[in-house]
Amino acid sequence: MREAAGQVAAKCLQLKRRLQLGFVGGIESLKLNLVEGCYFLHTKQWERIKDAFLRGFRSDQGGGGFPALVKLARATGDVELSARCNLVQRLTERCGRVDVPDLLASIAASDVGADLQQLRRADLLLSTAHKAKGLEFDTVVLQEDFQE
């Protein structure tokens, strides 16, 4: 999940009126489960980490913890993993105590579905530039994580 998309979705959920969100390419492509796993690693909730790759970073078992995951993401240039780590850090450190699993569940609950008919019902569509290729929109806003 790109960091900006996660931040936009989180802000939408703070509005008094719950927005219906559409994710071009489907919400599954965001891999919210990996964001949640990064959060559990960051907060040392080892038993709640479902992803085998992330479980390998458990610092209670010599894996180096969340800092090691961040270091790996940067060293390998893994943009998606870096974005997930950055999102978790922002939600937990800069935005106060956010219950990330509840936030992710709320984002998933606001999803209208992936087909074009369902996406038309969305108040806000979130997409990568790649997934939006060939589609037309009245208004487009590029977030700061857009790379040239």
Mean pLDDT: 83
Q: Which blocks of ≥5 consecutive residues have pLDDT under 50?
A: none
Shape: elongated
Gyration radius over CA: 16 Å
Structural class: mainly alpha
Query: In percent, how helical is the residue content?
Result: 40-55%
Please tally the β strands and state the result: 2
The main β sheet shows up as: 2 strands, parallel
Q: What is the N-to-C succession of helices and strands?
A: HEHHHHHHEH
Give the CA-CA distance, first to last residue: 18 Å
Tell me the strand order in the biggest sheet: 1-2
Report the portion of residues in β strands: under 5%
Tally the helices: 8
Protein described:
This protein starts with a helix and ends in a 16-residue tail after the last helix. The mean pLDDT is 83. It is mainly alpha-helical and 148 residues long. The protein has a two-stranded parallel sheet with strand order 1-2. The longest helix is centred in the middle third of the chain and has 16 residues, at 79-94. It contains 8 helices and 2 strands, in the order H-E-H-H-H-H-H-H-E-H. The relative contact order is 0.23. The protein is 49% helix and 4% strand.
